[in-house]
Structures
1.
Amino acid sequence: MSEADFPVRSAARARTLVELDGQVVRCRACPRLVAWREEAARIKRPAFRDWEYWGRPVPGFGPVDAALAVIGLAPAAHGANRTGRMFTGDRAGDLLYATLHGLGLASQPTATRQDDGLALSGVRVTAPVRCAPPQNRPTPGERDTCRPWLARELELLRPTVRCVVVLGAFGWQAVLPALESAGWQVPRPRPRFGHGVRTTLVAADDGAGAPVTLFGCYHVSQRNVFTGRLTPAMLREVLAAAAHTAGLAVDRPGAVAPPPPGSAGQP
């Protein structure tokens, strides 16, 4: 099997999410991303010079029977590429997990490393691109090469997933064809991304199976937070609405704690 064929064939063979995650971490299909993720792991950021970086593709994180999926963009070079867990070790993850914790969907508000005790309830966090890209910008070709992993992950979640929150326009563009491959009908013209936008997709197989509701949300990047494009309250509102739609019990009152100071993250 060639490196280029690996995502398609390996994703199709995975019968469980545990099997899929085990195959994801072996992927070397995108030469530019492989080189970048490994260079970042070798050079390291000075603040993390004592870390042994993960330096591989990052699998999804959360229960295999999740009702809500949260889909970002790609691992950060010194965040998930360092820790090996989605949105762990950077400020974007600090905000996301603090918000999930405030809603009662995460066991703690911080995410620092794989063995920090964090657990999610009813929520799985993943991304359309599994390797850290230079400047946090995967190419369209890299997005498409990586799509089989996300499509199969959504297909395996299909018995339980009822809502998907997509963080950012890039993720939105990547998720729609993945959902189509996973068994849902995507209308034409395709729904456009926007913060707070929601659309419900029905099952493609003659209506059999549950529909899934798609929510748009600005990405939890430092840039969006620093400029005020996305506030903690805005993020909480979308996640609370999606969790409620998915049938998850959430703690609605209260404000989201700000991300802990001093953590590193993607811009």
2.
Amino acid sequence: MMNKFFITSVAAIVATIALGFTVFFLFVLDSKGHPAVSSAAPATPVEQTEAKPEHPYLPPSMDDVPAGEEGELIKLGLKEHNETNTVLDGNVGNNLSCASCHADGGVGSSLDLVGISKTYPQYNPRAGKVVTIEDRINGCFKRSMNGKPLPLDSKEMKAMVAYYNYISSNVPDGTKERPWAKVPKVEGDLAKLDVNAGRELYNKACITCHGVGGDGGATGLPLWGEKSYNIGAGMARVRTAGAFIKNFMPKAPMGGYEAGSFTDEEAMNIAAYINSMDRPDFPDKIYDWPKGDAPDDAAYETLAGKKGAEKK
């Protein structure tokens, strides 16, 4: 009789082979800028975590969503996440969705959200107070999607929270850190940023998907202009955008580059170029980091920062 060790080993090998075939299929974007998965690849969140085989708490499959009202909310939440700017068009002011940053339902190849609901409430330096997951979701609606917040008691908000709770259900209660979702920072001197160098790199590795005018072209996402994130979004920060670019861009090999091949300096220069372009304002930005602890790459001056400078 085969022992448990042998059976486990065989299972691991089979899983690894299956994983290799799954990874082969590239993630692409549909005509509206939403994630689209090849028909040859599985389409439920648990099968889309192939990019992170080291994940300690894989989310349950959407096939296991409970029946009834709770299950319907979870399914709606996934749809809202992936198709935010069409399903919730009254609250989104641009062409972006949650999946623009958090691919494949938030369990895919970029900015993993598994476990996110277990980490809230938590202190947010930009807000200067403890915020709930609902607050954080609405922050994305107001900033990244340049829109309006969802009512806290609305079905739409409850659905998004239900979905994030579901993909986080295997993560232990009390979890505050999510190392599997941590994005390595980019380091560099902000005073040495080179926008022209960033433009050259953009034209080599980004322009095909994101367009000459940064409007997303036919299939990509808008990186500046009225249909992109506003100045108050996290991506308006050079280090934040640079880290995303370095770790996740381009989605497919382009201009001699692939995800992870940019140096910190190159990624920050691309981010500097993108964020040097016009985008929507966020009037409430002056109230950010009220304790005067804005990061060095904050894209704008705040009241607290101005008062701190005056005291000096």
3.
Amino acid sequence: MPRAKYALRDGDTGRRLARWQDTDGFFVGTTTAEQWWDQTGDEPPEQLEIKLDGLSPEPDLHLPSFRDEEDDSFALGDILVDILDTNEAILGTYDLWGATLETDGDGPGTGTLWANVSTPPHASARTVWNHWREHLPNTDGQWTALPPGERDGWVEAAQLHYFHKAGERRTWPMPTNPATLHGEQIADLASFFCAIGEAFGGPGGYFGSNLTALADCLANLDREPGEQLQLRWTAMAVAEEGLARRVETGEGWMRIFDIATGVLEQYNVEVLRG
């Protein structure tokens, strides 16, 4: 039987409920990093209708315990959807809630999962996970193979993979000083987060998916109080052009580039043009 690519776990207990091989209707998000400024925080959740192929309930668990007798569906509540590697180990996890599952039987088959999510998994993350299943990033710049507009999926995968590995730990290791931020391919804000994640965490590294998260990462950097970090930023002019969009802030309209460099300066990072 082919290896599963996805797994379903109970959100309260973490128990694995089922696995499946392919999916449709899950990776449908299109939100970009720049749209963070357009969000109000009051956006309603979205309900996904996710098709599951090669669905197989776990043999030691009983989905019937979740069964709704009226329509023969399974009311699962809060759930976790795991992305699995080729050995079926977890690479990263998505949180969903209010989930209901309908299957075509007790054995391997197909099913439909309805669940709510605050931000749908990005469409381009599917491609990233498919590559990471085979080989996690092991050289710098692999994210540049994705065109601008699809790099948000890389940031999403990097974030979920980091948090899966880190568990409850939320301290980022101090990189070699000075760290190097390669700006040659920074064409948008997602590119910036790909590049700075790599600068602080190596290939496939995560160091924020929006500027508030960037500040949080810097605040939790494992360094002595007052210790300065130097960041050598190559091709800074290219990045400056890619981050030239102006957005409204509490201090008026500012370029994303200036906001980003301001966050770095605020947290005692000296930016050096490389």
4.
Amino acid sequence: MSVVAIPTRRHPGVRPARPRSGPTLTITLDLVPGPLSPRLARLVQLLGELAESGEGQLRAVEDAAAVPRPAPRPVAAEPSADHVRILAGSRTVRQGDRVIPLTRIEYELLLFLAERPRRVFTRLQLLSSVWGYEHAVARTVDVHVRRLRAKLAGSEVVTTVYGVGYRLADEAPISVDHRS
């Protein structure tokens, strides 16, 4: 069983007289062993994005009598030559057999997008999340995306959403390994 608690959002200009906890919305999902349905997977993803943006908090609560989940399936056999693997533990990126030399920002940008597929980010959102500040020129993101694309030639990884920003390509041959 999973429990999600999302407290209400405070307005930036309004400050409470004394600290207190705001109203809480709690969502309980009884999950059965096995894969999630696409609609339920999307709901869990959206709740995670809300929590990630600071608008709430996501907690999983396990029952003592819960049925153990099956072990995750092993990764497919041999990836293609243009498959990009992000090895988060060693902070390296591999494309096929070769190591791709990325700067710190290029690596963080690629990891950020790979961990959030199917989501579009504006330049300002990327500056805030990847760079850690918003007071730079928004076109800085364009430069880093262009350099990242050049280094990952042969793999369509980052897609431009014209008039909005960037996102990970739908069919991007990319995987993130947090163990290595």
